[in-house]
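Figure-free illustration: sequence to structure, shown twice.
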Amino acid sequence: MTILEETFTLHNGVKIPKLGLGTWQSAPEDAYKATLFALKNGYTHVDTAIVYGNETEVGRAVRDSGLKRENVFVTTKVPAERKTYQEAKESIEQALRELDLEYIDLMLIHAPRPWAIMHENPENLKYFEENREVWRALEEAYEAGSIKAIGVSNFDVKDLENIMEACKVKPMVNQIIYHIGKTNPEVLEFCKANDILVEGYSPIATGRLLGNEQIEKMASKYDKSIPQICIRYLLEKDILPLPKSVHEKYIIENAKLDFEIELEDMEYLDSIQ
């Protein structure tokens, strides 16, 4: 069994493929071609978002792949700037319409705060009540069956606790940036303790880890590429990696992960800053 055939199981019983194709920063037609190629070469999981501007093309690629709908897992996201119940409800309807896939496998709140203040937030705005309202809309769609699983993205522990204090349905996923040199052990530990699957986007740091001499040395030891080491690094931590590529060669190579990284080597990779 290859990694493309393996799954994690969310706390509601839904199975999610262990490796997904990321489409962040993929132009619409590039996203279509990459998704179609990936699906025709063993991938069954693709990650998109309303703000990526490529939902329509991702949905078209899924339909054109010839795969049964139930055999493809599609994730999308409510934009970070939409923080009311009504806006969230409209986002869900928009995603269903643009993807045109009958239902959504997983939908996330893209970020706990609007992107303009995600990294610099001088007024320390929390958006706690607003996120609960967005979550209420996701819960309703989940209960109605138009979304099979719901979760969040870029949430820290306090953001997660805020949702969990008021929710009827606990988040199933938290998608965060996670790669060698940029880890988040506090969030990872909290999510594991609460049965929330962590997904890691940008596992190769949007290409910045290419050429890293320390990782190159490790890649040589295992006779693998730097991206393969970076992606496997997440899997060793039970994090679901979402590598993005529009190149057929790399889409295939990114899934060749039939090896394990030894514990001492994981500790070494953990030490890289």
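We now fold a second protein in the same way, so the two outputs can be compared directly.
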Amino acid sequence: MGVLRTVREDLQAARGHDPAARSNVENAVVYSGLHAIWSHRVAHRMWAVPALRGPARVLAQFTRFLTGIEIHPGATIGRRFFIDHGMGVVIGETAEIGDDVMLYHGVTLGGRSLAKTKRHPTVGNRVTIGAGAKVLGPIVIGDDSAIGANAVVTRDVPADSIATGIPATIRHRSGKQHEELVDPTTYIDPAMYI
């Protein structure tokens, strides 16, 4: 996939997820979440070359200094990823993030082990993770799920589910209850689930 196509997709994701987004030019200049993901895409390619792992970490830390968003260069991130507000986001080395995922500020995709194994979450496609949420360990967050603001998630979340609370309780998005909570034609804020 070409660099320009990736940049366009990321800009489109920002406009699609943030009702305050006004133009692609403005977003490209002022959105720290976009700056962090673009820098990560470069650092991740560097990380694939063992001789460039040191410089990749330096780039990641410099980006953290500039944006307040820490993404390890080893993390795998899909297409059309968006971080709204950004400050305080941490994404660990073995995290895997699918396509069309949105994170709010203060989200941690962290580990619970010091072992050199898969120790960070795998986040499916079309997942939204609310502000301050902590998703910890080598767990799987299923496609089309939402994690509520400030939730602490330490176990798998099935596809099409909502996880809220500390520790997180999980419920499936189904039937009439889902229709009462969410109008699919409107902007979905994960804080509405708590």
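Summary for the second example: The longest strand covers residues 161-164.
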